Amino acid sequence: MESRVKEFPFTQADFERVRSMIRHSAGIALAEGKQEMVYSRLARRLRATGVSSFSNYLDVLERDSNASEWQSFTNAMTTNLTAFYREPHHFPLLAEHARKHSQMTVWCAASSTGEEPYSIAMTLCDAYGTLEPPVRIIATDIDTDVLATAALGVYSAERVASLQSAQLKRFFLRGRGSQDGMVRVRPEVRRLIEFTQLNLLAPRWVLTSPFDVIFCRNVMIYFDKPTQRQILARFVPLMKPDALLFAGHSENFLYVSEALRLRGKTVYELAQAPAAK
Ligand SMILES: C[S@@+](CC[C@H](N)C(=O)[O-])C[C@H]1O[C@@H](n2cnc3c(N)ncnc32)[C@H](O)[C@@H]1O
User: Fold this and answer.
1) Residue 96 domain flag
2) How far lies 266's CA from each of 16, 72, 247, in Å?
3) Atom of ligand 1 nearest to the CA of 215
4) What is the pLDDT of residue 3?
5) Which of 23, 30, 73, 78 has most ligand 1 atoms within 8 Å of CB, for mutation?
6) Final residue belonging to a domain, choices 42, 77, 112
7) CATH number for the domain including 245?
8) How far apart are CA 153 and CA 156, in angstroms?
9) What distance in angstroms lies between residue 199's CA and the mean position of ligand 1's atoms?
């Protein structure tokens, strides 16, 4: 990699250190060839902290596993791509599941900037026909920046452009004045969701209740197979007997966990689950 033209020298050894650190702390397996991405994301952290080189920056992190910079490092390394009603075929299935249950507890395990848990909330409001459905949604992510954005529930009009106008009216407030061109999720809908930080790799999760539904979409792709296997094994006891587990479009859990079987396109249920009627 050309280091002469860069603001900060960035060697292959620096890249390998970053790779190993983020893999160890967050499970994220960065592919070879991601040097440019890592450089541009972390150069911002070097500027913000006033550290003059990558090796000094990484030394600071390695010296102190409790350093507050670890969170900023992690936030910089995550990829947060998401959208409202992403992989739309999942939502009718969620609504159908809700109609069979008088109340629902849902865990959205990599909720990014909130579009996914709000899509879940809106689907459940529609399914129960009220803005106060008997629903509890826990939305978690490792990245504290995206969680803050999610909790705010404010989006640009472009982010919601694909939603129908009836949905926009029902679930969002239009910004005025300085907020022109923005929308905000209605407080009733926001109140359905608890946003909290959770690292899927952490030895303990602050979750106890078994869930009717787990959304874990487009995050396992960043983990290697053994890590995926460990996480899925920890999902199983958190699933009610007829719970559904939603995965991302390129994630296949069938070969990773024998405890799961396919229920629909990238939707899983417990292999021991009562057969669907
Ligand atoms: C590509 S986004 C997917 C967002 C959403 N689930 C979707 O499908 O649209 C991946 C998210 O996983 C989060 N993530 C990465 N590693 C994680 C970990 N170890 N624990 C929890 N969340 C993690 C990232 O911060 C990011 O917000």
Assistant:
1) yes
2) 33, 32, 5
3) 6
4) 45
5) 78
6) 77
7) 3.40.50.150
8) 10
9) 9
Of the candidates 132, 177, 184, 139, the one whose C-alpha atom is nearest the C-alpha of residue 157 is 184
Residue 204 predicted with pLDDT over 50:
yes
d(CA 168, CA 189): 12
Q: Kindly report, residue by residue over 52-92, the tens digit of the pLDDT.
A: 999 999 999 999 998 999 999 999 999 999 999 999 999 99
Count the domains in the chain.
Answer: 2
| Domain identity same for 99 and 160 | yes
Residue identifier of the C-alpha nearest atom 26 of ligand 1? 80
Q: State pLDDT tens for residues 255-271.
A: 888 999 999 999 999 99
Average pLDDT, the chain: 95
* CB-based contact 137:120 (threshold 8 Å): yes
Characterize 248-275 residue by residue with b for buried, 16 or more Cβ atoms within 10 angstroms of its Cβ, and e for exposed. Answer: beebebeebbebbeebeebbbbbeebee
Q: Say how many Å lie between the CA of residue 5 and the centre of ligand 1.
A: 33
Domain extent for 155: 90-270
CATH code, 37? 1.10.155.10
Q: Which two tokens stand for residue 240?
A: 């009610």
For this structure, is 141 an active site residue?
yes
Q: What crossing angle do the helices spanning 35-49 and 69-77 adopt, rounded to 10°?
A: 150
Q: Based on the residue annotation, tell me whether 4 is a catalytic residue of this protein.
A: no
Locate tokens 């190993």: which residue?
20
